[in-house]
Specification:
5-stranded mixed β-sheet; 47% strand; 1 helix; single chain; 3-stranded antiparallel β-sheet; mainly beta; 174 residues
């Protein structure tokens, strides 16, 4: 989800395609899992999502310190809790209930950043490192935009064992 600076809010649509209602909790946190001092709110933070229905989450910037020379990354968490199985009352039957948490990236994009997101991908610099006898790739991103990577492979010549990686090369970082 990209939040351009200057917008009043951005939205995220959720839908329940199942036959049972769900209890949904949503919150925003930093990548380290801390939510203190986050200058964003998400509403509604907790709600019931009925079958074949949808709900729009509204994300608002409340003001506060955010870097203005690069994109910042936060995490949107959406926790889904299913109801107990039909005919089962708490304490009378054994069953396991597993909540599902989905984490999405939230990019805060300040105004007037130099370059474009497309140019950021071509500006990445790669370096081959050797640590403990293993080869690794290091990515450096000089641009103001974060670059998400879906599939990075490092395959030594003559070796069919692929080392698949995914992740993100942060703006102005490695």
């Amino acid at each position: 989800v990209i939040y351009p600076a200057g917008k009043q809010e951005v939205t995220l649509a959720l839908s329940n395609e199942d036959r049972e209602p769900r209890l949904i909790q949503a919150w925003i946190e930093r990548e380290d899992g801390q939510a203190d001092g986050i200058p964003f709110i998400i509403t509604p933070p907790i709600f019931r999502l009925d079958p074949a229905r949808g709900q729009t989450l509204r994300i608002r910037y409340t003001g506060g310190a955010m870097p203005q020379d690069r994109e910042s990354v936060l995490r949107i968490n959406v926790l889904e809790v299913q109801p107990p199985p039909k005919g089962k009352k708490a304490g009378t039957h054994n069953y396991m209930q597993i909540p599902v948490r989905t984490r999405l990236k939230l990019f805060w994009r300040p105004k007037n950043l130099p370059g474009t997101p497309g140019e950021a991908a071509t500006a990445l610099r790669w370096r081959l490192l050797r640590e403990g006898g293993k080869a690794q790739l290091e990515c450096t991103n000089p641009s103001a935009f974060n670059v998400s990577l879906q599939d990075v492979r490092l395959t030594p010549p003559g070796n069919n064992d692929e080392n698949l990686q995914s992740g993100m090369c942060p703006a102005k970082g490695r």
